[in-house]
């Protein structure tokens, strides 16, 4: 699917993925509208810690995911620079690395296997013993037997990045339509019609980037994408004392230290449908895990808790690519817990396909064709 002129494209969904796609399409000359019933970044994105850690995320995933995630991380420096240059808005972004901690022999064996696997790919990793782990991060519990240090990892403030992407997209002419939940997509006069709760919008093409709500949109003649919500709860703490040096992964939580002295603790994974709320059990689970990993967390102030619904798929891979039934319908959903990490590569793949008819080999693993009637 390619268009010979700047095209009228509706992006459904104003999370990090939808906003990244809209920005990329708009900066390449397409006329873009972003449609959502909530302000930008208020879905799963607002409960994201913004982790950029493909090698850790991929330890239980296939090589296709790892290749895609590493590719996306390699785009991040330029991705941030372009948005910052367009808007001058602050976007917290650090590549200070991650350290994953083992407190049992079994976990240490897993990290050793990861180090071997990543070393074979030429990735710079360091497998630390207990003493070196404590030297590298003095705030850790003394029961650490070792850790895996990956210097290329980092994090971005997902909320700030989403707002900057929206502002940059607007600078390139994109419009944002808030307060409008999309109910249906249908074909009309060679283009598409998008019906919201209050209006019908016509366009040449649609990008469905509605995250967990993608399956709530009726699509004429097409099965709904098999995306389900997976709740993730996240804590925001006011850190006291010497700051943590980098992102820390434990066996039951991760910690992301922000430069202004606060700390994010994440995240639960709960199959509870569309229950988008924090719970006492979730908060307690994360607090206990954080205090076990870094005992000084007991002294932190409690700022708040957030919950977001991550869009999961059966194979834990995103759904990105053109529909076989409606070629001018593009999917960009199902990113599960990796929407922030995969936003740059998703935007690139979608824009290349829609505007330049370049079909990347990555679509073989993430395209909707693997689910049949899409």
Which terms summarize this structure?
9 helices, 374 residues, 8-stranded mixed beta sheet, alpha/beta, 6-stranded mixed beta sheet
In the sheet with the most strands, the strands line up as 6-7-5-16-17-18-15-19
N-end to C-end Cα span: 15 Å
Poorly predicted runs: 1-6
Output the helix-strand order. Answer: EHEEHHEEHEHEEHEEEEEEEEEEHEEEHH
Q: Output the number of helix runs.
A: 9
Rounded average pLDDT = 94
Cα-based radius of gyration, to the nearest Å: 21 Å
Strand content range: 25-35%
Number of strands: 21
Largest sheet: 8 strands, mixed
The percentage helix is 25-40%
Oligomer: single chain
Q: Give the overall silhouette.
A: globular
Secondary-structure content class: alpha/beta
How is this structure best described in words?
It contains 9 helices and 21 strands. The protein is of the alpha/beta class and 374 residues long. Helix 1 (16-27) packs parallel to helix 8 (339-356), helix 3 crosses helix 6 (158-171) and helix 3 (63-87) crosses helix 8 (339-356). It has helices spanning 16-27, 54-57, 63-87, 105-120, 130-136, 158-171, 280-293, 339-356, 363-366, and strands at residues 8-12, 31-35, 51-52, 93-94, 98-102, 125-129, 146-150, 154-156, 175-177, 182-188, 191-196, 200-203, 205-208, 218-219, 228-238, 247-249, 254-257, 262-266, 301-312, 319-322, 329-333. The longest helix has 25 residues, at 63-87.
SSE blueprint and pairings:
Blueprint lengths: L7 E5 L3 H12 L3 E5 L15 E2 L1 H4 L5 H25 L5 E2 L3 E5 L2 H16 L4 E5 H7 L9 E5 L3 E3 L1 H14 L3 E3 L4 E7 L2 E6 L3 E4 L1 E4 L9 E2 L8 E11 L8 E3 L4 E4 L4 E5 L13 H14 L7 E12 L6 E4 L6 E5 L5 H18 L6 H4 L8
Parallel strand pairs: 1-2, 1-13, 2-9, 5-16, 10-14, 13-21
Antiparallel strand pairs: 3-8, 4-8, 5-7, 6-7, 10-11, 11-12, 15-18, 15-19, 16-17, 17-18, 20-21
């Amino acid at each position: 699917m390619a268009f010979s002129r700047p095209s009228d494209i509706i992006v459904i969904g104003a999370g990090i993925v939808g906003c990244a796609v809209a920005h990329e399409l708009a900066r390449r000359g397409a006329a873009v509208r972003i449609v959502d019933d909530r302000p930008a970044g208020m879905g799963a994105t607002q409960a994201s810690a913004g982790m950029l850690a493909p090698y850790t995320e991929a330890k239980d995933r296939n090589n296709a995911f790892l290749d895609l995630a590493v590719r996306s991380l390699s785009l991040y420096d330029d991705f941030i620079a372009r948005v910052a240059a367009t808007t001058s808005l602050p976007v917290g972004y650090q590549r200070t690395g991650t350290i994953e901690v083992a407190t049992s022999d079994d976990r240490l064996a897993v990290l050793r296997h990861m180090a071997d696997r990543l070393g074979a790919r030429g990735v710079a990793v360091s497998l630390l013993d207990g003493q070196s782990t404590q030297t590298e991060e003095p705030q850790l519990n003394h029961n650490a037997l070792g850790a895996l240090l990956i210097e290329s990892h980092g994090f971005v403030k997902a909320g700030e990045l989403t707002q900057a992407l929206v502002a940059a997209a607007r600078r390139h002419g994109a419009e944002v339509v808030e307060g409008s939940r999309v109910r249906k997509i249908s074909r009309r006069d060679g283009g598409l019609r998008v019906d919201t709760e209050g209006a019908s919008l016509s366009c040449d093409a649609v990008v469905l980037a509605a995250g967990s709500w993608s399956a709530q949109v009726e699509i004429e003649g097409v099965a709904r994408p098999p995306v389900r919500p997976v709740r993730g709860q996240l804590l925001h703490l006011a850190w006291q004392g010497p700051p943590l040096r980098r992102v820390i992964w434990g066996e039951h939580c991760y910690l992301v230290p922000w430069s202004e002295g606060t700390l994010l603790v994440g995240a639960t994974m709960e199959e509870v449908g569309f229950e988008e709320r924090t719970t006492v059990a979730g908060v307690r689970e994360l607090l206990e895990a954080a205090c076990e990993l870094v005992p000084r967390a007991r002294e932190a102030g409690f700022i708040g808790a957030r919950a977001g619904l991550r869009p999961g798929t059966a194979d834990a891979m995103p759904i990105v690519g053109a529909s076989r039934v409606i070629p001018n319908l593009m999917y960009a959903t199902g990113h599960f817990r990796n929407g922030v990490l995969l936003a740059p590569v998703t935007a690139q793949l979608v824009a290349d396909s829609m505007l330049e008819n370049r079909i990347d080999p990555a679509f073989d693993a993430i395209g909707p064709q693997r689910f049949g009637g899409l």
